[in-house]
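Here is one chain, start to finish.
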Amino acid sequence: MPYTSRKTNSLFFSLIQGCHVLSKDTQILSDWGIQGKLRTCSRIESVNWVAPNAPTIKVNTDGASRGVGVTTSSWAECLAIIEALEPAATKGWSDIWVETDSEATVQAFGSSQLPWALIHRWKHVQNMLQKFVITSIWREANFSADAAARKGVTLTDNIGRTYLGRPSWITRWEHPANTYYRLR
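Its structure:
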């Protein structure tokens, strides 16, 4: 849940109190029939989703390997990026920013260490694009791409879908004014 104002930030941090769930919170969970579990962490880190400057088009991706015939999550992450860039290149978009929640995937593209079966598609996309960059962001600020990946693995007809605007099944959307938090 994003917290954006200074007042709510201080409330958020006072509730965490050293990253331990408060006993009052545990009692509320218990009253609802949910078994609470104390979680400790060493730090709280903030992350912001950054909007692109014009004329850059930003695409956030997330790979999902469950139930789609893809063998590993690494393969799925690489495939998600290529499948995001292919239509962008076909449409003639020339300045693309791809953001994924997998740092390992960013490194794989940067070092050309992709799964061998994707190399031809990747080289074809590279030749079609004038300018692109691939970066990573924590999953806490990549949740709409995660929702799209989860939706994608439930589709059984192997037909791609294009949406104009926000699909109804994406209930939250990253916003540059919001700060998201990661408990580590």
